[in-house]
């Protein structure tokens, strides 16, 4: 698992291959057979690769989903869940393409929409074993749960696909191809953004706040408050034990390897606050990064303050402050100098992202509010509008569980969890402006 959030949230534009319609075919019972069928057959079979559509939703230990499917399954406590979207109710006959260890046999249970059945897998070659017919009464995302019942060896089965026999013409939505690494991106889930309309003034400071509802803060979440054209600043959940306040600035040198950045293009740390860790990052672009290990809590509002100021010598200084309410004062995170950059604050946005592909089945949500921009004359401007957009996973239709808009007099973002009440992208939402007061912060008295 990566420690840092992806900054391809904005830039990821891979063309996702989405299995939006069921393909014609018939069920195969052995590896050599392929889906063929003819138009007179009232049913067709859809193959759903586990590598892009399944998660381990229960259990511990080494059991996991890889891009090939379920390749390690030792624990009887493990549940693997496969998520598929049916655009209309349908009668479905599920089949699991699986194999048992050589000379062993296993019993696997499938549960879906109140239906439950067990099958025995004895073949050491991949075989499609059939469960019974079941009726899915509602359209939308459907969860198929697989659990191990009995095994004679160390492993239950290896499994690559869930095959669904459905009435011909049924519209089935799942990730079918790993082209462009789609299995990885789909399992992470869609990232969504709020792009703010800045005032017609030279902006030096921006202020915003985030409130994460209780229970909407799973591992892998990054709630980014103050993004800009050259970096981002927010809070994240790195593990069950660790949370961070994260502030990063990209180098103008385009590379995933920070060691390859010429000295003249390196982002330089100017200063950092107490207990803040600072260094470089790479892997998805490169630059300077800082973080404060801090156990922020869902249900509490946290404030963020970010500054961009040209130094007059061809670089820009970016500075971030964080306000934990229990401390009652602003905490200095860090200042970075970005070379070959002469700009004030531009491209303000927020986003919601999951950076752990094993946690893309769990919903996240946050309220983004109190957005203010301070110009170089010292005047605060209330931000009233934001445009709702998504990354390639969302905009291509790879996943359809994302939403944003106005709620409880705030902007909000929501994603993952395979919910059905999605909100269309590229809408502009207007923030209620009555009774809003500028933030009570004297920027001249901030720690540095």
UniProtKB/TrEMBL annotation:
Residues 28-63 are annotated as: Disordered. The keyword Translocase does not apply. Keywords: Signal. The keyword Signal applies. Residues 48-165 form the DUF5077 domain. Residues 1-22 form the signal peptide. It holds the Pfam family DUF5077. Residues 29-38 have a biased composition (Acidic residues). This is DUF5077 domain-containing protein. The lineage of its organism: Bacteria, Pseudomonadati, Rhodothermota, Rhodothermia, Rhodothermales.
